[in-house]
Fold this sequence. Notes:
Mg(2+) binds at residue 65. It comes from Cellulomonas shaoxiangyii. Residues 50-183 form the AAA+ ATPase domain. The chain is α/β, with parallel strands linked by helices. 49% of the residues lie in helices and 13% in strands. Helix 7 crosses helix 8. The termini are far apart.
Amino acid sequence: ESLVRAGADELERAAEAALRPRRLEEFVGQRVVRDQLSLVLQAALNRGRAPDHVLLSGPPGLGKTTLAMIIAAELGASLRVTSGPAIQHAGDLAAVLSSLEEGEVLFIDEIHRLARPAEELLYVAMEDFRVDVVVGKGAGASAIPLSLPPFTVVGATTRAGLLPAPLRDRFGFTGHLDFYADDELERVLMRSAGLLDVPLEGRAAAEIASRSRGTPRIANRLLRRVRDWAEVRGDGRLTLSAARAALEVYEVDERGLDRLDRSVLQALCLRFGGGPVGLTTLAVAVGEEPETVETVAEPFLVREGLVGRTPRGRVAMPAAWDHLGLERPAPADT
Ligand code: ADP
């Protein structure tokens, strides 16, 4: 089963890659970040120097990887891609860093998940363009400083607050990506439909956008599912009714909640009486990793006013009971 899943993930990634905007001006929405980045890049180009390191933060699927690729493209530089979890040892990172060429962009996804020794090596490299290569072992070991050509790190993280201050401080520019408005998602969808050459009607685009949790990745994924439905069960046109029927099959409700979101809400309301309940306990109850619940489901549920975060844990907001069609509990005596 995991092989089939891996294959499906591959396909999804390829489908996603085909829809990525290549230049800053094609990147929809996020006007503030786009504006700021365009200045940083133009200034660097004018000076003929590598720009400051860039940190991008925000929930998954909002365009961090896409922006990293765009940064390299706008600079006419090549891009090297790695991620926090992919770097097991500081030595792995040293190898990547020491092979960088002048002006290259190094994208580090999930940078908050770098192990401590790698993190320390990275901030020295970012600050002084130097890595200390350790030769030998034990008492006889010595560090040989190796200087690096100027390069730019683009780090991505789901929460900037997770980064230790010394690392965070090495970034000259931090862009916070926020959930997209529905009309921006509609533009993402119309653009994607054009690239995929599928006939997407305006009202269908609006319907898909409103159920995409403010997230372009989800919008594009739902678009592909609606296309599947239209081709197999419809007449090939992506109409409002095709969109509604497809989204029902895929269990995406009118508010855009999917199965994981609903199971989090259900666990909160039914198993824990509305909370407060700790993140780990909640994650175990829905059979997910705490990080998945925290970064994938929670930001949207909080923004929608369905879940609250308190010092004592997560709580169901009154709207959560309404959304699940449950009776709100009587207010507790306090
Ligand atoms: P992240 O790295 O933040 O998880 P990605 O950069 O991988 O997100 O974006 C996910 C998908 O959403 C990509 O396929 C990309 O095509 C699309 N996407 C993201 N942001 C935008 C945008 N502003 N305009 C158009 N498409 C976007």
